[in-house]
Amino acid sequence: MAQVRLENLWKVFNGKVEAVKGVTMTIPDKTVVCLLGPSGCGKTTVMRMIAGLETPTRGSVYFDDRDVTHLKPSERNVAMVFQFPAVYPHLNVLQNISFPLIAEGLSKAEVEQRVQEVALVLGLTDVLKEMPKALDTGSRQRVAIGRAIVRRPRVFIFDEPLSNIDPNVRVEMKSIIKQLSRDLGQTFIYVTHDQSEAMTLADQIAVMKDGELLQFDSPEEVYERPANTFVGWFLGNPGMNYVGAQVRDGGAGKIELFSDTFSLKVDAGKVAAGTAALSGRKVRIGIRPEHIRISREEQGGNWIKGQCALTEPMGAREIVHVRINGDQIRIKTLPTDVIREGDEVWVYFPEDHIRLFDADTGVRIGN
Amino acid sequence: MSAIHLEHISKKFGRKTALGDITVDIPETTFTTVLGPPGAGKTTLLRILAGLERADSGKIIMNGVDVSQRLPGERGVSFVAQDFALYPHMNVFRNISYPLRLRKTSRDEIKRKVTETARFLKIDKLLDREPTQLSGGEQQRVAIARGLVKDARLYLFDEPLTNLDYKIREDMRAEFRKIQHETGQTIVYATSDSIEAISMSEYLIVMNEGQIVEVGKTTEVYAAPKSLFTATYFGYPPMNTLPAKLGESEGGFTIDAGIFSVNIKGEKPRFKCSKPVAAVRPERLVLADRKPDTDAAFSAKIVLSDVIGSDTIVYLKPENHPETVKAFVPSTYRALPGHRVWVGLASRDLFIYDADSGLLAWKGEDVGSGQA
Hints:
The complex is a heterodimer of chains A (about 375) and B (about 375). Chain A is α+β, with helices and mostly antiparallel strands. In chain A, helix 3 crosses helix 4, helix 3 packs parallel to helix 5 and helix 4 crosses helix 5. Chain A contains 10 helices and 21 strands. In chain A, the strands form 4 sheets. Chain A has a 6-stranded mixed β-sheet, with helices on both faces. Chain A has a 6-stranded antiparallel β-sheet with strand order 13-12-11-14-20-21. Chain A has a 5-stranded antiparallel β-sheet with strand order 15-19-16-17-18, with no helix packed on it. The model of chain A has no long low-confidence stretch (mean pLDDT about 90). Chain B has about 375 residues and is of the alpha+beta class. Chain B folds into 2 domains: about 220 residues, 3-Layer(aba) Sandwich (Rossmann fold), CATH 3.40.50; about 130 residues, CATH 2.40.50.140. In chain B, about 25% of the residues lie in helices and about 35% in strands. In chain B, helix 2 runs parallel beside helix 4 and helix 3 packs across helix 4. The radius of gyration of chain B is 24 Å and the shape is globular. The mean pLDDT of chain B is about 90. The interface between A and B is large, with 37 and 36 residues.
C-alpha cells in the first residue's frame, strides 16, 4: 500500500523527444487510477518511471514519503501486468503463481494458502495443474495477474492488460479486475487508451496528451466537466460537440451566447459562475451529444435552427448530425424515423449541460 | 434492378470450404455490408467479386453481363484489401491519384478529386508526405482514399477501419456513409463490427462458416433477425438468449424462460420448435429498484457496469440461473456491482427462435402491445 507522488516529472529521449513534460500528480493510497490518452501521449512512459523501468530526465517519484526515483524496479515492490501475458511456459499454473513466493523464501504452507486464495479470486482453481499453452490468452493473463497479486506488493501496475484479449473474454476480465481492485484495497495504476476501460474501472482518471497531464479527476468530473476541448472530445461516444459563439451581457443575471445565426440567453450563475465578466469574449459552447434535444417543429426561445446533414443509426441509439453556422454537431437520440437528411431542425442545449471553453486556448471557463 | 448477381458460387482451399454454394443479389448504388465473424468467408467473397480469386463453380453477373471469366482489370472494380500496400516511392498525393493518372484524367480533375477525398478522410494535410512518415492509421486512410477516387462500377472494402483508433473510427464511419450518399457509389464493405454494419449500410448480408445466413435491409434485419445466429451476433451488444419451454394456453401460448414466464394471447409460433430459445434486445430491458409493472420481471445481481460513454452495458446474473443477461441503458443509471436489481421486459419485445433449425418462429410485435 502506498501513495504515489510524481513531482514535475520529465522524460526526454535522445536529448530531443519530449515524451513527458512536467507531470505532477498525487495518486492516493488504495485508489485505482487510469492513465488515459491516445497513443504517443506519454502515459506508458509515466508508468515506466513509476515502475522504475525508466529514469526521469528531471523530477521525482515518491512512494509515500520515500523518494524512489533512483531505486531499481526490484527495490520498489511494484508488481506489473503487461499487455502480453508474461508467464513461464515450462511451469504449470500453480508453479507460475507460487514462483515469486518461493523466491522470497516463504514456508510451503504459507505459499500453498496464498496461491489457493489467489486462484479462487481469479477462477483458476480448476486449472492449477495445467501448462500455460493449454490455456487461452484470457486465462494466461489471469495467471499473470495471479503472480502479480500473490506477492502483495505496494503498487500494482497494469499496462493495457486487455488489449490482446478476445472481446468476449474482455468483459469477464474487466469484472475480475474491478473485483480485485476493491477486494485488495491497493494502489492500482492502470494504463489504457480505451475510455470505457477507464470509465468502468477507475476511481480517478488522468487524461494525457502530448506528454502533458490535462486533467486528473473522478470519471464523472472528467466526463461532465472536461478541463479542455480535447478531453471533452476524447471521452464520450461520440465526444463533446463544440459551437463557436461570442458572449455579451444578457441582463437580469443572464449572459447571451450569440453568433450570426443564433442567440442563447442562459443563466450566468449556472453556466459561468465564478468567472469575471465574460462579455466580449469568443468562446466555444461545449455540449454532449446525449444532452441535446432535437425537433422538426419550429421552436421559440433558446432553440437553435440547423440542418440535418446525416443520420447514423446505431441500433439502440441514433446519431443525428446537424449543421449550425459553420459547425457540425452530433446529437444522440433514441432511434427516430422522423428526421431525414436535409431536413430543417431545431436543437436545444439544456443550460445545466452547457460548458464554455476559450475559443483560442480550448480551456474550460466557468462551470 | 440488381447490379450484381452471384449464382451458386463455391470455393474451397484444399479441403476447407471457404464458400459453400452462395446465391445472392447485391443492389446497385447502395452501401452493402457483409457482416460475419473471422473465417465466415467475407474476404473470399470480396476477392471473387474483384476477380482476384476464381470460384470453383458458379457465376457472377454484373449489369446483365457474366463477368466470371474476366480479369480484375476488366471488371471496373476498386478493391481495398485489409493488407493493402502503398507505393513507397510516391507521396500521399501521388499514391491517391495513381488510379486516375493511369486513366489519363485531366490535371484539374485529379486535383479536385484527390483533395476532396483526402478532406473526407482527414488526411488533406498529409498530401506531401511519404508513406514511411505516416502512422499505420494514416496509411490505411490513404489506401481507402486511393480506393475511393478510382472510377469504378463497384467498390469493395475489406475491414478497412479495423486497425484504426476508436476516435478516428467514429469519424470515419460517418464519412463513409456521407461519401456513399453523395456519390451514389455501389459499395460492398466487409466487417465483423456490428456498429459499422448498423451505422453505415442500407443493405446487410450476414455470413457464417462460408454460408449466407440472412440478407435484407439493415434496419429490418436489426428490428427482427430471421436467424438465431444474426440475433446473437448482430447488435451492440447482441440479443440476450435463454433456453425456453413453450406451453399451451387458452387462446394463445406460454413462454417459460426459466427466470421469467409470460402468457401470450394471439398468434402462436409459425412452426413447432424442438429447442425453443427466447430472445430480447439488451436496450429493451428496464432496470429498476422495485419490481416493475412490466409483462415479465426477474431479479438479478449486477456483475459489471461497463461504461461506454453515455451508455452502459450492465451485465446481470439472474437468481438461480447460469446465463448472464445484458442490459443497455443510459449511463445516468448508476448501480454498483453486487447490487440487486429488477429487470423488466415487455412481451412485444420477445422473439422465439428454434435452436435446431436456427430460425425465427415468433416475434412479440405480431401480437401487439399489452396483450400478455
